[in-house]
Amino acid sequence: MATDDMQIRRYEFKKALQELETLKGRGTELVSLYIPPNKQISDVVQYLREEYSTSSNIKSKSTRKNVLAAIESIMSRLKSYRFAPETGLVFFVGHVATRGDQTEMYVKIIEPPEPIQTFMYTCDSYFHLEQLKQFLVEKEIYGLIVMDRKEATVGFLNGTTIQVVSNEQSLVPSKHHQGGQSSRRYERLIEIAAHEFFKKVGEIANNAFMPLIKDIKAVFIGGPGATKEYFFEKDYLRNEVKAKVKDLLDIGYTDETGLREIVEKASETMKEMRIAKEKDLMNRFMMEIRKPDGGLGVYGETAIKNALEQKSLDLLIISEDLNKVHYRYRCPQCGNTRELMTKPDGNVICDKCSTPMVLEEEEDLVEVFYRLADASGAKVEIISGNSDEGKLLQKAFGGMAGILRYVPKAANPPQQ
After folding, report:
1. Within the chain, how many helices (H) and strands (E) appear?
2. What is each CA distance from 130 to 126, 329, 358, in whole angstroms?
3. Cα 131 to chain center, whole Å?
4. 297-404, superfamily in CATH?
5. Is the distance from CB of 379 to CB of 314 less than 8 angstroms?
6. Does 414 have pLDDT greater than 50?
7. CA angle 241-242-243, nearest 5°?
8. For the chain, does the N or the C end have fewer beta carbons within 10 angstroms?
9. Cβ atoms of residues 150 and 170 within 8 Å
10. Facing residues of 329 across strands?
C-alpha cells in the first residue's frame, strides 16, 4: 500500500493547504513560521522572543494582543520538539475571522512532505503558503540521458527537480581527412572508442536506473544527430531500462543544460502519460458496468462502503475533487452510534431509545474510505478532477467508483 499511502498523504496535504488559503485575519495578525530541518529549535525560540518584544509595540490593541498570543502559542508548542523533523516544521497560528466581527484562535502544524529550505517568519492578514505549494506537484521520477559522441549526461527528473547523476566526456577522436589504409584503420579506432564510450554511458545509466526501475515512469534519451538512435538500438541498456524508454528527442545540448532541454521537450509526453493512466482506470471501470450483468463495476457511496467492509473490492477510484464529509453521531443516553454520509437538516434520533443524538465527529469521506481500503487490502487511485475522466467520475458517479474482486453472494439467495 506504499503508493496508496503516498496518494492519501498528498490528498490530505492538498486539503490542508486549501483550508489555509481560505482563512483571513482582521489585521496583520496571522503568523506563518517555516523551520527547516537543519535549524536549531533553540535559535527559533530566541528569534520568537525577539519578535515578541518587537510586537509589543504594535499600536492596535487587538492586533498586538492577537500577535502576542500567536507567538506564545508557537513557543509553547516548540517545547515538545528537541529537533525539527526530517522535512522541517511549519506553524500557521493566529486569530482568523469567523462570523461578523468575531475571530477565533487557529493553530495548524504541518510536517511538509519534502524538506523546506528557508527559515521564514511572517505576520500578515493571510497565511503564507508559497514554500508548501511547490510540493503539490506530482513527484514522478523519470530517467534522462542526453548524449552525442563527445559528451553524455545521465540524470533524473524527480518531481520538478533535475538531478545530475554523471557527466562524461568521451575520448572519441574527431573524423580526419586522410586516405588509404591509414584512413580505414583510423576509422576502426574511432568506432572502438565510440563503442567503449557508449558502453560506459550505458553502465552508468543502468546502475542509476535499475535500483528505481519500478518507480521510474519513463526514460527519455536526447541529443543532436543520430547518436541517440544508435545508442538505443544497440545493447548498451539493460532490457528493463530499454523497456522504459518512451521517446528519443532532438536537442542541442549534452550537458546539464541538455537535461533541462529534454525535460522541456518531454513535458507534453509526461502529461499525456498521466492522463493515459487515468483514462485506463476509467476505461476498466466503464467496461465492467457496460456488461449485461453489471460486471465487476460498482459505484455509489453505500455500495462501495459495503464492498470494502466485505473485502470484495479490488480497486477504489476516487476523484481528487470529492468534497464530502462523513458524520458520526452518538446517543448521550444509551451510547448508540450512527454513521451518516450526509448531514441531516434536523435532529438525528436514536433508533434504540428515541433520544436526540449528538454529532461526535466529522471526517473527510476520502480518508474514511481510504482507511477501509487499507484494512481490506484494496488498491486506491486518486485521479485529478481536471481531466475528462476526473470530471466524468465526479458528475456521473458521485466522485467514486470501484472494481470488485468478485461479485459477493447474496445473503439470502433465491430458492430453486
Report:
1. 11, 16
2. 12, 38, 39
3. 15
4. Ribosomal protein L30/S12 (3.30.1330.30)
5. yes
6. no
7. 90
8. C
9. yes
10. 338, 359
The string of pLDDT tens digits covering residues 390-406 is 889 999 999 999 999 98
C-alpha distance across the termini of the chain, in Å: 42
249 forms bridges with which residues in the sheet? 222
Residue type, 280: D
Backbone angles phi, psi at 32, to 5 degrees: -115, 125
**Interatomic CA distance for residues 195 and 415, integer angstroms:** 74
At 276, is the pLDDT very low, low, confident or very high (cuts 50, 70, 90)? confident
pTM, full prediction: 0.61
| Whole-number pLDDT of residue 416 | 38
Rounded CA-CA distance 217/270 in Å is: 9
DSSP 8-state code for residue 349: B
* Per-residue cell: 92: 500557521
Query: How many angstroms separate the CA atoms of 171 and 149, rounded?
Result: 9
Long-range contacts of 362-366 (CB under 8 A, 24+ apart): 362/325, 362/326, 362/327, 362/328, 363/325, 363/326, 363/328, 364/12, 364/15, 364/324, 364/325, 364/326, 365/301, 365/322, 365/324, 365/325, 365/326, 365/341, 366/8, 366/11, 366/318, 366/322
CB half-sphere exposure, 233, CA atoms < 13 A: 5
Are both 141-273 and 297-404 of the same fold? Answer: no
Give the Cα separation of 343 and 327 in Å (integer): 7
**Which one-letter DSSP state was computed for residue 113?**
S
C-alpha span between 55 and 389 (Å, rounded): 51
**Closest by Cα among 154, 149, 221 to 192:** 149
In the DSSP assignment, the letter for residue 294 is -
pLDDT band at 45 (very low <50, low <70, confident <90, very high): very high
From 3.40.50.720, 3.30.365.10, 1.10.10.10, 3.30.420.60, which CATH number describes the 141-273 domain? 3.30.420.60
- The x, y and z cell numbers of residue 68, run together, are 502576542
If we measure between CA atoms, which residue out of 239, 240, 241, 259 comes closest to residue 251? 259
The domain limits of the chain are: 2-136, 141-273, 297-404
Instruction: Write out the three cell numbers for 8.
Output: 492519501
Q: Which three cell numbers stand for residue 14?
A: 492538498
At 61-77, the pLDDT tens digits run 999 999 999 999 999 99
On whether the 2-136 domain is CATH 3.30.390.50, my answer is no
